[in-house]
Specification:
There is one protein chain. α3 runs parallel beside α5 and α5 runs parallel beside α6. By secondary structure, the chain is α/β, with parallel strands linked by helices. Helix content is about 35%, strand content about 20%. The protein is globular, with a radius of gyration of 20 Å. It has twelve helices and ten strands. A six-stranded mixed beta sheet has the order 6-7-8-3-9-10, with helices on both faces. It has a four-stranded antiparallel beta sheet with strand order 2-1-4-5, covered by helices on one side.
Protein backbone atom coordinates (compact mmCIF):
# COMPACT_ATOMS: atom_id res chain seq x y z
CA UNK A 1 0.00 0.00 0.00
CA UNK A 2 1.09 3.56 -0.76
CA UNK A 3 0.13 6.19 1.79
CA UNK A 4 0.71 9.92 1.49
CA UNK A 5 0.13 11.83 4.71
CA UNK A 6 -0.12 15.62 4.91
CA UNK A 7 2.31 15.84 2.00
CA UNK A 8 3.57 19.32 1.13
CA UNK A 9 6.04 20.39 -1.53
CA UNK A 10 7.46 23.84 -2.15
CA UNK A 11 9.77 25.22 -4.81
CA UNK A 12 11.37 28.23 -3.20
CA UNK A 13 8.59 30.27 -1.66
CA UNK A 14 5.88 28.72 -3.83
CA UNK A 15 4.02 25.79 -2.30
CA UNK A 16 2.65 23.50 -5.03
CA UNK A 17 1.28 20.63 -2.89
CA UNK A 18 -0.86 21.56 0.09
CA UNK A 19 -1.26 18.76 2.62
CA UNK A 20 -2.03 15.79 0.34
CA UNK A 21 -3.61 12.69 1.94
CA UNK A 22 -3.99 9.59 -0.26
CA UNK A 23 -4.13 5.82 0.13
CA UNK A 24 -3.49 3.51 -2.81
CA UNK A 25 -4.15 -0.17 -2.17
CA UNK A 26 -2.03 -3.02 -3.51
CA UNK A 27 -3.15 -4.01 -7.00
CA UNK A 28 -4.99 -0.74 -7.68
CA UNK A 29 -4.79 1.17 -10.93
CA UNK A 30 -5.14 4.57 -9.32
CA UNK A 31 -5.61 7.65 -11.46
CA UNK A 32 -4.58 11.17 -10.44
CA UNK A 33 -6.41 13.63 -12.67
CA UNK A 34 -6.20 17.36 -13.09
CA UNK A 35 -5.49 20.21 -15.46
CA UNK A 36 -1.98 21.32 -16.38
CA UNK A 37 -0.20 22.89 -13.43
CA UNK A 38 -2.42 21.25 -10.82
CA UNK A 39 0.51 19.37 -9.26
CA UNK A 40 -0.02 15.88 -10.72
CA UNK A 41 3.53 15.18 -11.82
CA UNK A 42 5.08 16.72 -8.71
CA UNK A 43 2.87 14.50 -6.58
CA UNK A 44 3.78 11.26 -8.35
CA UNK A 45 7.49 12.14 -8.32
CA UNK A 46 7.29 12.46 -4.54
CA UNK A 47 6.33 8.77 -4.35
CA UNK A 48 9.72 7.58 -5.64
CA UNK A 49 11.48 10.62 -4.14
CA UNK A 50 12.57 12.14 -7.43
CA UNK A 51 11.10 15.15 -5.65
CA UNK A 52 11.68 15.36 -1.91
CA UNK A 53 8.57 16.43 0.00
CA UNK A 54 9.00 19.62 2.02
CA UNK A 55 6.98 18.03 4.82
CA UNK A 56 4.64 15.11 5.40
CA UNK A 57 5.20 11.40 4.89
CA UNK A 58 5.43 8.84 2.09
CA UNK A 59 4.76 5.33 3.38
CA UNK A 60 5.18 2.11 1.38
CA UNK A 61 3.68 -0.94 3.11
CA UNK A 62 3.60 0.99 6.36
CA UNK A 63 7.28 2.00 6.21
CA UNK A 64 8.07 5.73 6.16
CA UNK A 65 10.44 6.14 3.19
CA UNK A 66 10.41 9.94 3.11
CA UNK A 67 13.97 10.33 4.34
CA UNK A 68 15.50 7.29 2.63
CA UNK A 69 18.98 7.85 1.25
CA UNK A 70 21.86 5.76 -0.02
CA UNK A 71 21.31 1.99 -0.05
CA UNK A 72 17.75 2.30 1.24
CA UNK A 73 16.81 4.69 -1.56
CA UNK A 74 18.44 2.42 -4.14
CA UNK A 75 16.40 -0.54 -2.89
CA UNK A 76 13.20 1.53 -2.89
CA UNK A 77 13.67 2.65 -6.48
CA UNK A 78 14.31 -0.90 -7.62
CA UNK A 79 10.76 -1.68 -6.47
CA UNK A 80 9.16 1.30 -8.28
CA UNK A 81 9.16 1.51 -12.08
CA UNK A 82 8.35 4.72 -13.95
CA UNK A 83 7.36 5.61 -17.49
CA UNK A 84 7.26 9.09 -18.97
CA UNK A 85 5.38 11.05 -21.60
CA UNK A 86 8.48 11.49 -23.78
CA UNK A 87 9.59 7.82 -23.48
CA UNK A 88 13.09 8.79 -22.17
CA UNK A 89 14.95 6.17 -24.22
CA UNK A 90 18.67 6.31 -24.93
CA UNK A 91 19.03 6.96 -28.64
CA UNK A 92 22.52 5.43 -28.80
CA UNK A 93 21.36 2.12 -27.31
CA UNK A 94 19.40 -0.64 -29.01
CA UNK A 95 15.93 -1.65 -27.85
CA UNK A 96 17.33 -4.62 -25.93
CA UNK A 97 20.03 -2.45 -24.35
CA UNK A 98 17.46 0.14 -23.25
CA UNK A 99 15.39 -2.54 -21.55
CA UNK A 100 18.47 -3.99 -19.85
CA UNK A 101 19.75 -0.59 -18.65
CA UNK A 102 18.48 -0.82 -15.03
CA UNK A 103 19.99 -4.30 -14.76
CA UNK A 104 23.34 -3.08 -16.10
CA UNK A 105 23.39 -0.38 -13.41
CA UNK A 106 22.95 -3.13 -10.81
CA UNK A 107 25.82 -5.06 -12.50
CA UNK A 108 23.60 -8.05 -13.21
CA UNK A 109 25.56 -10.59 -15.30
CA UNK A 110 25.27 -10.04 -19.03
CA UNK A 111 23.61 -13.38 -19.80
CA UNK A 112 20.98 -12.81 -17.12
CA UNK A 113 20.09 -9.31 -18.28
CA UNK A 114 19.93 -10.43 -21.91
CA UNK A 115 17.51 -13.18 -20.93
CA UNK A 116 15.38 -10.76 -18.91
CA UNK A 117 15.37 -8.23 -21.75
CA UNK A 118 14.23 -10.88 -24.23
CA UNK A 119 11.49 -12.02 -21.83
CA UNK A 120 10.15 -8.49 -21.46
CA UNK A 121 10.30 -7.76 -25.17
CA UNK A 122 8.18 -10.84 -25.78
CA UNK A 123 5.69 -9.52 -23.21
CA UNK A 124 5.36 -6.19 -25.02
CA UNK A 125 5.36 -7.80 -28.50
CA UNK A 126 8.67 -6.28 -29.63
CA UNK A 127 10.93 -9.31 -29.67
CA UNK A 128 11.59 -8.87 -33.40
CA UNK A 129 12.88 -5.33 -32.82
CA UNK A 130 15.45 -6.15 -30.11
CA UNK A 131 18.35 -4.89 -32.24
CA UNK A 132 16.58 -1.78 -33.57
CA UNK A 133 17.23 1.73 -32.25
CA UNK A 134 14.63 4.15 -30.88
CA UNK A 135 14.78 6.42 -33.93
CA UNK A 136 13.55 3.47 -36.01
CA UNK A 137 10.44 2.95 -33.86
CA UNK A 138 7.00 4.49 -33.80
CA UNK A 139 5.82 6.39 -30.73
CA UNK A 140 3.79 3.44 -29.51
CA UNK A 141 6.71 1.06 -29.95
CA UNK A 142 8.98 3.41 -28.02
CA UNK A 143 6.51 3.53 -25.14
CA UNK A 144 6.37 -0.27 -25.13
CA UNK A 145 10.16 -0.31 -24.78
CA UNK A 146 9.85 2.15 -21.88
CA UNK A 147 7.27 -0.10 -20.20
CA UNK A 148 9.54 -3.13 -20.62
CA UNK A 149 12.45 -1.19 -19.12
CA UNK A 150 10.30 -0.10 -16.17
CA UNK A 151 9.57 -3.79 -15.49
CA UNK A 152 13.20 -4.91 -15.66
CA UNK A 153 13.71 -4.89 -11.88
CA UNK A 154 10.38 -6.70 -11.26
CA UNK A 155 8.82 -3.69 -9.50
CA UNK A 156 5.75 -3.88 -7.31
CA UNK A 157 4.69 -0.33 -8.21
CA UNK A 158 4.66 1.48 -11.54
CA UNK A 159 4.27 5.25 -11.92
CA UNK A 160 2.85 6.37 -15.28
CA UNK A 161 3.31 10.11 -15.87
CA UNK A 162 1.12 11.07 -18.86
CA UNK A 163 2.25 7.87 -20.55
CA UNK A 164 -0.17 8.15 -23.50
CA UNK A 165 -0.54 11.89 -24.05
CA UNK A 166 2.00 11.94 -26.91
CA UNK A 167 0.31 9.06 -28.76
CA UNK A 168 -2.49 8.83 -31.30
CA UNK A 169 -5.87 7.33 -30.49
CA UNK A 170 -5.33 3.73 -31.56
CA UNK A 171 -1.83 3.59 -30.11
CA UNK A 172 -3.17 4.96 -26.82
CA UNK A 173 -5.66 2.11 -26.75
CA UNK A 174 -2.95 -0.50 -27.25
CA UNK A 175 -0.73 0.98 -24.53
CA UNK A 176 -3.64 1.11 -22.07
CA UNK A 177 -4.43 -2.52 -22.83
CA UNK A 178 -0.77 -3.43 -22.21
CA UNK A 179 -0.75 -1.57 -18.87
CA UNK A 180 -3.98 -3.31 -17.83
CA UNK A 181 -2.38 -6.67 -18.69
CA UNK A 182 0.72 -5.85 -16.62
CA UNK A 183 -1.52 -4.96 -13.67
CA UNK A 184 -3.64 -8.07 -14.06
CA UNK A 185 -0.95 -10.65 -14.82
CA UNK A 186 1.91 -9.35 -12.68
CA UNK A 187 -0.07 -7.73 -9.88
CA UNK A 188 1.78 -4.42 -10.27
CA UNK A 189 0.15 -1.48 -8.47
CA UNK A 190 -0.14 1.45 -10.87
CA UNK A 191 -0.41 5.19 -10.32
CA UNK A 192 -1.60 6.83 -13.53
CA UNK A 193 -1.14 10.57 -14.01
CA UNK A 194 -3.38 11.96 -16.74
CA UNK A 195 -5.41 14.98 -17.75
CA UNK A 196 -7.73 12.74 -19.77
CA UNK A 197 -10.82 11.40 -18.04
CA UNK A 198 -11.31 8.97 -20.90
CA UNK A 199 -7.91 7.41 -20.22
CA UNK A 200 -8.70 7.20 -16.50
CA UNK A 201 -12.05 5.62 -17.22
CA UNK A 202 -10.50 3.08 -19.52
CA UNK A 203 -7.95 1.72 -17.03
CA UNK A 204 -8.39 3.04 -13.47
CA UNK A 205 -10.50 1.44 -10.75
CA UNK A 206 -10.05 4.43 -8.42
CA UNK A 207 -9.23 8.07 -9.07
CA UNK A 208 -8.42 11.30 -7.27
CA UNK A 209 -8.92 14.78 -8.68
CA UNK A 210 -6.24 17.35 -7.89
CA UNK A 211 -6.79 21.09 -8.18
CA UNK A 212 -4.16 23.70 -7.33
CA UNK A 213 -2.14 21.22 -5.28
CA UNK A 214 -5.10 19.86 -3.28
CA UNK A 215 -7.06 16.63 -3.60
CA UNK A 216 -10.64 17.85 -4.06
CA UNK A 217 -12.33 14.51 -4.70
CA UNK A 218 -11.53 10.80 -4.73
CA UNK A 219 -13.33 7.48 -4.94
CA UNK A 220 -14.10 4.72 -7.41
CA UNK A 221 -14.13 5.74 -11.04
CA UNK A 222 -17.87 5.12 -11.24
CA UNK A 223 -18.62 7.16 -8.13
CA UNK A 224 -16.58 10.17 -9.16
CA UNK A 225 -17.74 10.21 -12.78
CA UNK A 226 -21.39 9.55 -12.02
CA UNK A 227 -21.79 11.78 -8.96
CA UNK A 228 -19.12 14.51 -9.01
CA UNK A 229 -18.99 16.74 -5.97
CA UNK A 230 -16.10 19.17 -6.52
CA UNK A 231 -16.50 21.97 -9.05
CA UNK A 232 -13.22 21.03 -10.74
CA UNK A 233 -14.51 17.49 -11.31
CA UNK A 234 -17.72 18.86 -12.80
CA UNK A 235 -15.75 21.16 -15.10
CA UNK A 236 -13.55 18.30 -16.26
CA UNK A 237 -16.56 16.07 -16.88
CA UNK A 238 -18.33 18.80 -18.81
CA UNK A 239 -15.55 19.49 -21.24
CA UNK A 240 -13.60 16.24 -21.36
CA UNK A 241 -14.50 13.19 -23.42
CA UNK A 242 -15.79 10.56 -21.05
CA UNK A 243 -18.71 8.19 -21.24
CA UNK A 244 -21.42 8.57 -18.63
CA UNK A 245 -24.21 6.06 -18.20
CA UNK A 246 -26.73 8.86 -17.84
CA UNK A 247 -28.32 11.26 -20.28
CA UNK A 248 -27.10 14.66 -21.46
CA UNK A 249 -29.71 16.30 -19.23
CA UNK A 250 -28.35 14.44 -16.20
CA UNK A 251 -24.83 15.38 -17.27
CA UNK A 252 -25.82 19.05 -17.43
CA UNK A 253 -27.34 18.79 -13.98
CA UNK A 254 -24.19 17.15 -12.55
CA UNK A 255 -22.13 19.98 -14.04
CA UNK A 256 -24.38 22.67 -12.61
CA UNK A 257 -26.55 23.34 -15.68
CA UNK A 258 -23.62 24.74 -17.64
CA UNK A 259 -23.99 24.79 -21.44
CA UNK A 260 -22.44 21.87 -23.26
CA UNK A 261 -21.08 23.83 -26.22
CA UNK A 262 -20.09 27.22 -27.46
CA UNK A 263 -21.90 27.19 -30.77
CA UNK A 264 -22.28 25.17 -33.91
CA UNK A 265 -19.30 24.71 -36.19
CA UNK A 266 -16.69 25.81 -33.65
CA UNK A 267 -13.64 23.61 -33.48
CA UNK A 268 -12.70 22.15 -30.13
CA UNK A 269 -9.67 20.58 -28.55
CA UNK A 270 -11.59 19.58 -25.44
CA UNK A 271 -10.83 22.66 -23.36
CA UNK A 272 -13.48 24.86 -21.76
CA UNK A 273 -14.69 27.61 -24.05
CA UNK A 274 -13.14 26.14 -27.17
CA UNK A 275 -16.18 24.80 -28.96
CA UNK A 276 -18.97 22.28 -28.65
CA UNK A 277 -18.87 19.40 -26.23
CA UNK A 278 -16.71 16.59 -27.60
CA UNK A 279 -19.11 13.92 -26.36
CA UNK A 280 -19.58 11.48 -29.21
CA UNK A 281 -22.63 9.35 -29.90
CA UNK A 282 -21.22 7.39 -32.79
CA UNK A 283 -23.18 4.22 -33.57
CA UNK A 284 -19.86 2.59 -34.42
CA UNK A 285 -18.41 3.33 -30.96
CA UNK A 286 -17.07 0.69 -28.62
CA UNK A 287 -18.01 -0.27 -25.10
CA UNK A 288 -15.86 0.99 -22.26
CA UNK A 289 -14.37 -1.67 -20.00
CA UNK A 290 -13.90 -1.31 -16.27
CA UNK A 291 -16.26 0.20 -13.74
CA UNK A 292 -18.30 2.35 -16.13
CA UNK A 293 -20.71 0.61 -18.48
CA UNK A 294 -21.05 2.37 -21.79
CA UNK A 295 -24.60 2.74 -23.08
CA UNK A 296 -25.17 1.35 -26.53
CA UNK A 297 -24.00 3.64 -29.30
CA UNK A 298 -21.76 5.87 -27.19
CA UNK A 299 -18.06 6.13 -28.05
CA UNK A 300 -15.10 7.32 -26.04
CA UNK A 301 -13.99 10.29 -28.07
CA UNK A 302 -10.22 10.62 -27.89
CA UNK A 303 -9.55 7.05 -26.74
CA UNK A 304 -11.68 4.58 -28.65
CA UNK A 305 -13.92 4.44 -31.66
CA UNK A 306 -13.98 3.18 -35.21
CA UNK A 307 -10.39 2.34 -36.10
CA UNK A 308 -11.08 3.37 -39.69
CA UNK A 309 -11.59 6.94 -38.54
CA UNK A 310 -8.06 7.23 -37.16
CA UNK A 311 -5.55 9.04 -39.35
CA UNK A 312 -2.65 6.86 -40.45
CA UNK A 313 -1.53 3.56 -39.03
CA UNK A 314 -1.25 2.66 -35.38
CA UNK A 315 2.47 2.41 -35.92
CA UNK A 316 2.84 5.98 -37.11
CA UNK A 317 5.74 7.72 -35.40
CA UNK A 318 5.27 10.45 -32.88
CA UNK A 319 7.65 13.38 -33.07
CA UNK A 320 10.86 12.32 -31.39
CA UNK A 321 12.83 14.38 -28.90
CA UNK A 322 16.29 15.28 -30.16
CA UNK A 323 18.10 14.96 -26.89
CA UNK A 324 19.04 11.96 -24.78
CA UNK A 325 16.75 11.61 -21.74
CA UNK A 326 17.82 13.07 -18.44
CA UNK A 327 19.79 10.57 -16.39
CA UNK A 328 17.98 11.76 -13.27
CA UNK A 329 14.68 10.52 -14.69
CA UNK A 330 15.93 7.17 -15.89
CA UNK A 331 17.63 6.64 -12.53
CA UNK A 332 14.22 6.28 -10.93
CA UNK A 333 14.01 2.84 -12.55
CA UNK A 334 17.56 1.96 -11.56
CA UNK A 335 19.66 1.49 -8.47
CA UNK A 336 21.03 5.05 -8.52
CA UNK A 337 20.28 7.29 -5.58
CA UNK A 338 21.39 10.55 -7.15
CA UNK A 339 22.09 12.20 -10.48
CA UNK A 340 25.87 12.04 -10.42
CA UNK A 341 25.89 8.35 -9.52
CA UNK A 342 23.50 7.61 -12.39
CA UNK A 343 25.58 9.60 -14.84
CA UNK A 344 28.76 7.80 -13.83
CA UNK A 345 27.04 4.42 -13.97
CA UNK A 346 25.62 5.18 -17.40
CA UNK A 347 29.02 6.04 -18.85
CA UNK A 348 30.88 3.13 -17.26
CA UNK A 349 28.26 0.57 -18.23
CA UNK A 350 27.75 1.74 -21.81
CA UNK A 351 30.28 -0.69 -23.23
CA UNK A 352 28.88 -3.75 -21.45
CA UNK A 353 25.09 -3.33 -21.73
Amino acid sequence: MIELKRLRKSFGEKEVLHGIDLEIADGDVFGIIGVSGAGKSTLVRCINLLERPTSGQVLIDGVDVTDFKGAKLIKLRESIGMIFQNFSLFQQRSVAENVAFPLALRRVPKAERQARSAELLRMVDLEALADAYPVQLSGGQQQRVAIARALANRPRIMLCDEATSALDTRTTMSILELLARVNRDLGVTMVVITHSLAVAQRICNRIAVIDDGRIVEQGTTREVFSHPKAQMTKDLLLFDTVIQDFSDDERRAAAGDAPLGMGEGAESDGRPGDGPSPISKDPQGVDAPGDVDAPEGVAIHGVAGDARAADGDAGESAELPNETPKISEVASASKCSNVSEAANASESERAVV
